[in-house]
Amino acid sequence: MDITLDINRESCIRCGRCVRVCPSRIFTQEGKGAEIGTVNIATCIACGHCVAACPTSSVLHGMFPPEKVHAIDRSLLPTPEQTLLLIEARRSNRAFTEKPVPADMLERILEAAHRAPTASNRQEVTFTLVTDPARLRRISTFTADIFGSVLRKLENPLLKPLAKAFLPGVYGYVPTFRRLISELGKGNDLILRGATAVILFHTPAGNRFGSQDCNLAYQNGSLMAESLGVSQFYTGFVCSALHQDRSGRLNRELGIEGTIHAGMALGMPAFLFPNYIDKKGIEVSRL
Length: 287
Fold this sequence. Notes:
The relative contact order is 0.14. The strands form 3 sheets. The protein has a 4-stranded antiparallel sheet with strand order 5-6-8-7, sandwiched between helices. Strands 1-4 form a two-stranded antiparallel sheet. The protein has a two-stranded antiparallel sheet with strand order 2-3. By secondary structure, it is an alpha+beta fold. The chain is built from 11 helices and 8 strands. It is elongated. The chain has 2 domains: 5-68, Alpha-Beta Plaits (2-Layer Sandwich), CATH 3.30.70; 78-272, NADH Oxidase.
């Protein structure tokens, strides 16, 4: 992309913030208080750090005209205690009502997810929001079908001894696979648990950091959902099935191009948890 980038010399106070935050080292300053210069503008990744950091709006970036730059009122930000409480309160709540998640809440969750950082600022994470009951059933059916295929391989008399010996972690899921498949056949979906919406996170197939980018986006969206009182959980079974499938079946059924790396099942809660509990003791290596 063609980038236009310049400095307003009249308003620039030469604080050097743009020099310090630019990941591409485009801004130069020979010493404290010296004039700001630019080099190798073509290497700009359009992250916007320079524009966001400038206190006098002196960085003139073609990708970020004034209408795309917004002042932050930091007095409105949650306190550290409030932020930690939100994180402590966030749980994978699978007790949903049949009431759909309001559209405006889903949009805010998507917006929060979209604002997550991405490697090299590629911003290639895209989202598929599924609210149609028939398509939600397809996601669960796909997952059960893939697990059924895995189950048949694990229970093959010739492969079973090898699976037990070399894949004990996978083989340990045999009872879970059986239960998920059996219950779905009875009309009891233990995969999506009655979620009224699913967000799938995906990137183009060639994105080397697609998994990391999608899961960063997931975490943003998950915390926004918690703040809105929307229950959600990570679709681990679906992601596991996607990893096992090489045919791209779910992508075709939902019209998704690229690779799905994460998923969030959402619904309005039957109740909110009144308590949070402690995790195991934190382990930190301090070097």
